[in-house]
Design a protein that fits this description.
Blueprint (H helix, E strand, L loop, with lengths): L4 E2 L4 E4 L10 E7 L5 E11 L12 H11 L6 H4 L12 E5 L5 E10 L10 E10 L12
Parallel strand pairs: 3-5, 4-6
Antiparallel strand pairs: 1-2, 2-3, 4-7
Length: 144
């Protein structure tokens, strides 16, 4: 995969090998290395189990890794999948991260999901705080 080329709106065009020029993935990203930004994630996980029972449904590490992978731009065409809609400049795929290495902190709180009929259902609330790795002209308006 070649690197992103960002336009003024923060949209990036990722050229994926094998997709050809017409099938490149257009991704609108918030956290980019070229903007010197890092993301801090505060996650509230509401689950049908009692609070604190984070291990009962499997490995929390794998669940968290799957979530973090879903927040980043795809690395290759296999991650996009054959049934995914094609992205373009006019209709980009919105993702939070250019790469999950740009996450500097993750905090996960669990509580009980009270209105779930499906015991496999999980509801997440994710608060993202942007932090600069260094202050540059391009990231001043995005940081608090």
């Amino acid at each position: 995969m070649t690197g992103p080329a960002a336009d003024a709106r923060g949209c990036c065009r990722w050229a994926l090998p094998g997709f050809g020029h017409d099938h490149a993935v257009g991704a609108a990203l918030v956290v980019l290395a070229q903007l010197c930004l890092l993301a801090e994630l505060d996650i509230l996980m509401l689950r049908p189990e009692a609070p604190g029972a984070i291990i009962s449904r499997g490995d929390i590490d794998n669940s968290l890794k799957t979530l973090l992978d879903a927040l980043r731009a795809p690395n290759n065409e296999q991650e996009v999948g054959g049934s995914a809609r094609q992205s373009s400049w006019a209709s980009p795929t919105f993702t939070l991260l250019e790469d999950d290495r740009l996450i500097s902190r993750v905090n996960v709180d669990t509580d009980r999901l009270l209105n779930s009929a499906d015991h496999d259902q999980v509801r997440l609330t994710i608060k993202v705080t942007l932090r600069p790795s260094k202050v540059i002209y391009g990231n001043q308006v995005l940081i608090s």
